[in-house]
Amino acid sequence: HEVPLLTRYDATVNAMNGDVLLHRVNTSLLKTEIVASGQIAGTIGRKGKTTLLNVDVREGRIQDVLRLFVKSPQPPLNGITNFRATVRVPPEGRPFLEELDLRGGFGIDQAHFTNSQRQASVDDLSNKARGDPHDKSDKDDPENVISDLKGHVHLHEGIANFTDMSFNV
After folding, report:
1. Which of 11, 49, 81, 124 is the most exposed place for a label (fewest CB within 10 A)?
2. What gap in Å lies between CA 58 and CA 22, rounded to an integer?
3. How far is Cα 43 from Cα 6, in angstroms, rounded to an integer?
4. pLDDT digits (tens, 9 = 90+) for 64-112
5. pTM for the structure as a whole
6. Angle at Cα 71 formed by Cα 123 and Cα 110, nearest 5°?
């Protein structure tokens, strides 16, 4: 599915080879602002141009960002995110997610799963952590969320590997 983008940028184009140096790119992905810098440049002896970006999101919505990576109409997680990542997309002609190499650190606060069964499992974990495994009184409480979710991600050939994960319930 298509995700609308609104972009402003400051760039320099090399007229000799068509390489583009992106000094600053400000883009909006739904309700999330993304700031990036980097380049779209060729490599001697290789066909096409590789995109290399440093990407930064502050107080964005994880559901907006996840729309770039999931096929389902509803992203699996909602919440407020901050992240910083490096992105590399080589000119290999494969589908976007297979070419994308993303490495970065992230934080997500006020998170909750859009799948009610998955969220119910987290709610049960929270109840048990409070010492009452049978407490269902806050089942519909919007404050019942995952907080302080942090970690690192490496997305390569369509597979995301997470490390150094931590969170509170």
Report:
1. 11
2. 20
3. 29
4. 999 988 888 889 999 999 999 999 999 999 999 999 999 999 999 988 8
5. 0.80
6. 30
